[in-house]
What we know:
Layout lengths: L5 E5 L4 H11 L4 E6 L2 H11 L4 E4 L5 H14 L5 E4 L14 H29 L4 E5 L12 H21 L5 E7 L8 H4 L2 H9 L9 H12 L10 E4 L11
Parallel strand pairs: 1-2, 1-4, 2-3, 4-5, 5-6, 6-7
Amino acid sequence: MNDTPIALVTGAAQGIGFACAQAISESGARMVLADINTEGVMAAARKIDGDAIGIACDMADPAKIGTMFDQIETELGAVSILVNNAGIAQPCDFLETTVEQFQSVIDVNLTGPFLATQRAAKAMVAKGIEGAIVNMSSINAQVAIPSIAAYCASKGGVMQLTKAAALALAPYNIRVNAVGPGSIDTAMMAGVNADPGAMAMVMSRTPLKRIGTPREIGDVVAFLASDKASYITGETIYVDGGRIGMNYTC
Length: 250
């Protein structure tokens, strides 16, 4: 039987998700990258190593999440490391946000991680795997921005989901933690990077006076997924250059 851990990272075609996959792969895990962007995730998997697999999956669709796990478990075995990274924001004026817009963010950012965590944990329990689950929260679990109300609500939910799942799965030695990024150099930050005024505002609320890199998030995720974090569960680690300690957000 192959004892190589199987690691699944969602939203892994680019940015933070891809950096998480890169960092975890360096520990020797067999990588599975999932993303709604089929071509992008296949290309990302090829960049990791010859054994990495790319799977197209819409994390807002419960049936597709189930199909993804069916494929992984049939072809490779049970996932022992899960990184719930897939997420969307959809900025919109608070008074103009529709219920459909709000729900679409919750579906991807909160319901998807719940379903993936539950499915992965069931297999871990059945196989006696003492695994690790890392959810992608955000500093917006703690501090709010009015134009992304659904995103803030979803990430606050992820923080609490992480705690609840950690308590539920502790008897099986399955650890559940989260990472809360601050301003990171990803596609979401492209507009800010191009706007000196917006960048000045970001720097004014970032004590380390720079934006973070995806790999800086990936390294923390890889740590939480590793045995080096064997006594950490139910926590959200904020990787934000010091911003969460400040008393203003915008």
